[in-house]
Amino acid sequence: MSRDLFVKQVVINSTGGVRTLDFAHPVVCVYGPIDTGKTTLVDCIKYPLGLPVDWRQVPSERLTSVTVHLRIEGMDIALRRSTIADTGTVELISPYDGKAEELLDVTPQPDSDRRVVGEALLDLLGLSELFAPPTAVALLGNGARLTFAQLYALNYLSQDMVDGTESVRGQANTAQSYKTIVELVLGLIDAEMRVLTARRDDLGQTVSQFKRRTETISEFLTGSAAELEEELTRSRSEERDTLTALEELKGRMRAVTTFADPLRQRVAALEGTHSRAREEEKAAQAALSLAQRAIQRAQQPGTDPVLHCPSCRQALTGRVVPEGACALCLSELDPGVRDAVVQAAEAALATAQQRAIEAAKTAGEAQDALAQARAELEERTRLEIGPLAGQIEQLSAAHAGARTRTGMLERQLDPHRRLLELQRALRTAEEELRGVREDIKTRKNLLSGRQTTLAEIEEQFSAIIDGLSLPNEPGARIDHNSLLPKVRAGKLTKVGHGVRTAINVAYRMTFLSHALVTGATDLPSLLIIDSPRKNVGYGDEDQQLIARLYAHFLDHIAGARSHTPHARPHQVIIVDNDLPSLPPHLRRQMHTIELTRDNPLVP
Q1: Which pTM value belongs to this model?
Q2: Are strands 485-486 and 477-478 parallel, antiparallel or unpaired?
Q3: Which of 115, 128, 166 minimizes the C-alpha distance to 501?
Q4: How is the chain split into domains, by residue range?
Q5: What is the mean pLDDT of the chain?
Q6: Which of 291, 316, 319, 408 has the maximal Cβ count within 10 Å?
Q7: Closest to 58 measured CA to CA, from 35, 30, 77, 87
Q8: CATH fit for domain 5-188+452-594, picks 3.40.50, 3.30.1330, 1.10.3470, 3.90.70
Q9: pLDDT bucket at 24, cuts 50 / 70 / 90
Q10: Cβ contact 145:132 at 8 Å
């Protein structure tokens, strides 16, 4: 069914005050002479919707903010946007108390978590899923995303679009995006079927890729994955067992080593004692040698010969030294002193001999004790520590070998495992592909005989064109490739502005009429037309044409609604220089807003 998008009120804030305009009527006609703000009023509806507006001089200087009150799918909302500060955001405000409920971005911002106003409007219209991936991707390709601005081009005919100066598809649309949106909202294609078809194609490619990869890997594999897995299990078990036994032996080794620690400490202590005894023995021997030389000097008659004079270094070897005299001064020595010296030397010699004997004894005892302790430690090592060390070495080698085999087997199994993963992924993709194919069959059965055809829309377009009685019968029709209007001679530029305007308005009337009659479209039931009368001209035939256009338009919309039991709400807003002569019953269908030089739009 068509989507309810209805303008209820527009509030304009400017430096000259506030103006509130009532739009809560199915048909609204705003008219007045040039430069009174008619197009600005249309821009004031667009601006809070987050759409770009190129303000003219007067509104750009005076406007401060614009608020539009809308009904969207039965929900009343209001959008307010400033024209002087923070123009990149739109306030979603309560239509009841005017308080801001949410701040929306006009365009997506990389560091913002706020919603974009266009996306919020699509969500309120119930079209967010239809316009976002995967539907857009299925229709337009990777990275595609349809926008509210592209949809709004179907609801608004600017002056340039009315007279054909600008393509009727609007600046926001490319040829492809316009065609896609028309097909989507008018039901010319089934979006879900497109998504299913695109998914089926993607899955078909994925299945083919998986099959090629599995075949490639299988060609280079040797051996059985099951046999390798079994061998790997045995190798891992051996690795665990040898590691457990190795840890057990290391624990026993630590225990034995701890038990032998006192013996090692005793050996270390005895080595210290033995070293000290050897040092004492050497010292005693040195003292004994000194004592023996001292006794020899004391027992010699006289003193040791002096070879040179200590003062002049004159040789003294040729002198004869008498017995018992000094070798230097030749004076006679005292025999009592010499005897005392001999006795002292003999006593020192005896003491040194005794010390040497005791030191030798002590060193020998230390040597014996050390030899015994070392023998005990070696015996303990031979009987307990040595065998454990040998076993640890053997188990370490066995564990290293098992670990090496495990690594080798895992590398051999890696391509087998990748093959298994690919095979599982292949089965999953094949199952999903079968499910998508079943969904496509089901969808086709559901859509059988229900899908809207372009012929139905062309029939309505032709009926409207025939009712307008266009001069020279231009042969207006809808191009099947672009879904844009054209004439027998080709593009609309082949005909005059008046005929071009009538065709473009009839083209948009067809969409709205189709939405009202069938109720099977997603097109928002709002149509805004800017200055159709001005673009036609002011000759008698031109005025008759515009009168027929207005009359046929109002009659057609009224008739479409009267023949539809459950007609959806709709709204048509026409902006023009003045109104044509219309029958009273048609004038009563319109709510008019007049703008004058004394009462322009912007205060």
Answers
A1: 0.64
A2: antiparallel
A3: 166
A4: 5-188+452-594, 242-410
A5: 83
A6: 291
A7: 35
A8: 3.40.50
A9: very high
A10: yes
